[in-house]
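User: Predict structure, ligand protoporphyrin IX containing FE.
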Amino acid sequence: MSQFTYEEVEKHNKEGDLWIIVDSKVYDLSKFAGLHPGGPNVLYAANVAGKDATDTFFGLHRHEVLLRPQYARLQIGVIRGQEEIIKAPLPGSLSKVPYAEATWLSDGYYSPYYTDNHRMFQKAVRKFFEEVVRPEALKCEEGGTRISQEVVDRLSDLNIISMRLGPGKHLKGRYLMEGLVKPEEFNYFHELILHTEVARFGTRGFVDGMLNGAVIGLPPIWNYGSPELQSKVVPEVLSGKKYIALAISEAFAGSDVSGIQTTAIRDGGYWVVTGTKKWITNGTFADYFTTACKTEKGLTVILIERGEGVSTKPIKTAYSPTAGTAYVVFNKVRVPVSNTLGEVGKGLSVILSNFNHERWMVTASSVGAQRVIVEECLKWANQRIVFGKPLTSQAVIRSKLGKMITRIEACQNWLELVTHQMNNMSYNEMSNKLAGQIGLLKQFVSRCGRETAEDATQVFGGRALTVTGMGKFVENYHRTSGFDAILAGAEDVLGDLGLKQAMKKMPKDARL
Ligand code: HEM
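Assistant: Predicted complex:
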């Protein structure tokens, strides 16, 4: 790289001969000026042309702009004796911005929950996600395409698809994250790391598109399916060769699951299933549907394979079509009775058995996404100069930032406490003691998330309204944080569940 002095750069300060300095690097924008998305004229301004435009640049662009190959090659040299200050983070590295990482990941802080193994696991997961999954997430979120088979294969090689379903017998004999964690050591904190890390991409549609259908649709197979069904379907899904979706909600029934109208009528050794499911995550590309049906004897869950009589069509939602949200139509689909999951008429307990984990998972990714927004706002408020001073010099902005930090820390700490309970409880204990608390936690986290989305939008102003550029993550979060309040159960219903569960446990002699 050539080395220049400020005086040398300053001579190139006009149309056709235009250099600028950003963070000690010298860029020749002579030809690029005419192509500059922000227009050429802004580049000829007296405080920009031939000058150190670092502060002006970072008031208008994300650092990643300079890293894109087409712009990186505009650099012709550096300022003699100076070094760049703003470095691109290395894949897998932790942010040094206060509160940008959970406390357990922040230098000099402690946590009772995480071991060295969790730390190694987190580092490896973040590095892999940033190198392999993040580029895919950005592409799919923007283009609305489903996750590619190539990335699914990489996820399955590391057994990430299996690990996202939590600790359990499905991990037995598997080589997790290249042997970094033994199946018997894998616990809910490892899983929590996976869910929070994937949410860091700021691509809410992709979080669901990264096979969340399996996280919620597969457990009923291994908990309630016949051995034959398990030995066929579980390996297919965990290896990423087939996709599965949970098909419960309908236009007729959301949180009120018992209101579903899809019917399954016995005909010899078959069920004949007819009905329409709505909002089915991964439904557009699923091969299997874990489906709640109404039968003569009551609610029954049946595994339906895509085939004759099954059709899906995408539903346009506020988030990206990469999630594969679908209407699923079953038109007199003949399904072998051996595909019944659990007892006929006992479908509600099959469905409920899944809910705690699903709600906790949505909460975990919601917390991961919220933390990224806190980091975005802290960085932006620090670098944005307004009325000649950084945004942080405004008390109203500092107040918003303080509330954001308070919320994310409260959410994270409660989530970790609940996760610790899950690690120490049997499945039945969890259902008994945690269903209500997870409902309240999810309600709290999704409400905090939306308050933070509102505050972040105010901090970023107009930039939070555009899909690209400076505020793109805030825009995505503001548009999609409401999903966390609805998916896996509407927050008001869940909050109420929490209260009802608590009321059931009131001691008979409780009096003031
Ligand atoms: C290496 C130098 C530069 C490159 C590669 C560059 C590139 C870009 C790109 C890609 C955008 C589109 C928005 C985005 O993706 O963030 C943009 C927007 C913009 N740029 Fe630059 N730019 C450079 C320097 C500057 C400088 C020195 C100024 C100083 C005034 C400037 C002013 C703007 C403005 C006003 C916008 C529009 C921002 C908005 O709509 O919010 N650019 N630039």
